[in-house]
Design a protein that fits this description.
single chain, 390 residues, alpha/beta, 9-stranded mixed beta sheet, 3-stranded antiparallel beta sheet, 15 helices, 17 strands, 43% helix, binds iron/sulfur cluster
Length: 390
């Protein structure tokens, strides 16, 4: 089934490391943006009913409302929208798509943007999963990242979400922060375990060449830990989380049983999704599309009745196969080579086995029967293994 991604590009302040498609919050612009989103979703729904046209869906004409079972509000900071705006966007998705009764509907939220009343209103609007951008439970680190919340505010936000009735919460944490030591990182992991979310995403900070954080680090003489410490951070965090009842299911993601992110799994299991909003991507029917990135450009496109998609491309069989292997290997389950052969007509082991054997021998990759998967150590060197397929 389809996943629906809704991009909300507004933030209260711009974090010094951020490389996402976002801008500063502007009330009137936000109101125009929400109207544009509603228009884009309605047009996609109509295109589906008319047989599929315009977006990345021309390959499989579909008569009627297409089934969808996830909506993901990502950003930016989607929790800056009013609950009433979220409710209208969800209603537009229901109108345009056949949303299943048990659809997973996630909202990314920054801890400083919510309180219990607002979270309860998001829940009433149809949100049933929250993903909090916590990043760290250490004040020094939060200040270094120029985040607006404190560790206590993050704890409070989780408590408020529970009081508002949410039973499916995810937290984002970042490791490899400037000057962070292994034990300091594990303090945040322990603090996250203590508030007991159902799901956690652990990312490594990437300092982009033009990020203001790069200058901050140079001025303050902060550096990122050496590779062996990052490996220790990753492995120790995963071991601690497993002891606390979480299962790792993807390179950066762990969940309590039954709480894997259904939406994100579409990205990793050769699934299909439509993205709405500025800079959003879609993948469907063997085609890819990308919307115009600028917020005002997007509003203008939709307002003048045009498609916001600026890049639409049909994927070759080789590209689809590459994507399936690349994303599939991110999962702890790995890829099923029989399923790949049935879908793409390629025997992956016959084609790449000679190169992959080196990784198997080095303990980074395992191959048993039809299953091919990265070991935990292999996950740290995933790009090197995956390069075989490029
Ligand atoms: S809140 Fe998230 S999207 Fe917004 S600036 Fe910070 S890192 Fe970027």
């Amino acid at each position: 089934m389809l996943g629906l991604y809704i991009h909300i590009p507004f933030c209260s302040a711009i974090c010094n490391y951020c490389n996402f498609n976002r801008g500063l919050f502007d009330g009137p612009q936000k109101a125009r943006y929400v109207e544009a989103l509603l228009g884009e979703i309605a047009t996609a729904g109509t295109a589906g009913r008319a047989g599929g046209a315009g977006r990345a869906d021309a390959a499989r004409p579909f008569q009627g409302r297409e089934p969808a079972d996830t909506i993901f509000f990502g950003g930016g900071t989607p929790s800056l929208l009013e609950p009433e705006e979220i409710a209208r966007i969800i209603a537009a998705c229901r109108e345009g798509f056949d949303l299943t009764a048990d659809a997973e509907i996630t909202l990314e939220a920054n801890p400083e943007t919510v309180d219990e009343a607002k979270l309860a209103a998001f829940r009433a609007a149809g949100i049933n999963r929250l993903s909090f951008g916590v990043q760290s439970f250490r004040e020094t680190e939060l200040r270094r990242l120029s985040r607006l919340h404190t560790a206590d505010r993050a704890r409070m936000a989780v408590a408020e979400a529970r009081a508002a009735g949410f039973s499916n919460l995810s937290l984002d944490l970042m490791m490899w922060l400037p000057d962070q030591k292994v034990e300091e990182w594990l303090e945040s992991v322990d603090a996250a375990i203590a508030v007991a979310p159902e799901h956690l995403s652990l990312y490594m900070l990437e300092v982009y060449p033009n990020a203001p954080l790069k200058d901050d680090m140079a001025r303050a003489r902060w550096s990122q830990a050496p590779d062996e410490d990052v490996a220790a951070m990753y492995v120790a965090a995963m071991e601690r989380l497993e002891s606390a009842g979480y299962e790792q299911y993807e390179i950066s993601n762990v969940a309590k049983p039954g709480h894997r992110s259904r939406h994100n799994l579409k990205y990793w299991t050769d699934g299909e999704w439509l993205g709405f909003g500025c800079g959003a991507h879609s993948t469907k029917g063997g085609a890819r599309a990308k919307n115009v990135a600028g917020t005002d450009d997007y509003i203008k496109c939709i307002g003048s009745g045009q498609s916001a998609a600026i890049e639409v491309s049909r994927m070759s069989g080789a590209e689809q196969l590459g994507d399936a292997l690349f994303t599939g290997l991110r999962l702890t389950d790995g890829v099923n080579l029989d399923a790949i052969r049935d879908r793409y007509g390629v025997d992956v082991w016959e084609r790449h086995g000679a190169d992959l054997t080196d990784f198997v021998d080095a303990g980074l990759l395992r191959h048993e029967g039809a299953r091919l998967w990265l070991t935990r150590r292999g996950m740290l060197l995933a790009h090197e293994v995956m390069a075989v397929f490029v």
